[in-house]
Amino acid sequence: MKELVEVIAKALVEKPDEVVVTETRDGNHVTVELKVAPSDMGKVIGRQGRIAKAIRSVVKAASTKEDIYVDVDIVE
C-alpha cells in the first residue's frame, strides 16, 4: 500500500522528492502516513477534500484484495 500512495502523491505534487510515505502494520490493520511539502498540501487534499477522499478510495479498493484494513493519514 505504501508504494501505491507514494506513486499517486508524486504524480500530484510539484516537489515529488519531498514526498515521504511511512507504513505501520498491526495485524491486518495498516496505517499509511503521507507527508508532502507545505506548498503541495493543497494539491494532495483538494477542494473540500476530494483528492484525499479519492486516494483513500483507491487504497481501500486495493486493500480488499489483500484482506487488510488501511488508514491513509495526511500529516504536515
Structure description:
- The protein has 76 residues and is an alpha+beta fold.
- It has one domain: 2-Layer Sandwich (GMP Synthetase, Chain A, domain 3).
- It is globular and about 35 Å long.
- Strands 1-2-3 form a three-stranded mixed β-sheet, with helices on one face.
- It starts with a helix and ends with a strand.
Task: Reconstruct the topology from this structure.
Blueprint: H1 2-12, E1 20-26, E2 29-35, H2 41-45, H3 50-66, E3 69-75
Parallel strand pairs: 2-3
Antiparallel strand pairs: 1-2
Please describe the structure with a list of short key phrases separated by commas or semicolons:
single chain; GMP Synthetase, Chain A, domain 3; three-stranded mixed beta sheet; alpha+beta; globular; 76 residues
Arithmetic mean pLDDT: 94
So, CATH architecture?
2-Layer Sandwich
Number of helices, counting only DSSP H or I runs of 4 residues or more: 3
Low-confidence stretches: none
Q: Note the gap between the termini.
A: 20 Å
> Given this structure, which CATH class is correct?
Alpha Beta
Spatial strand sequence of the major β-sheet = 1-2-3
Count the beta strands.
3
State the fourth-level CATH superfamily.
Answer: K homology (KH) domain
Alpha carbon gyration radius: 12 Å
Shape verdict: globular
Strand content: 25-35%
Give me the secondary-structure category.
alpha+beta
Number of domains: 1
**Order of SSEs, N→C?**
HEEHHE
What's this model, at a glance?
The protein has helices at residues 2-12, 41-45, 50-66, and strands at 20-26, 29-35, 69-75. A 3-stranded mixed beta sheet has the order 1-2-3, covered by helices on one side. A hairpin with a 2-residue loop joins strand 1 (20-26) and strand 2.
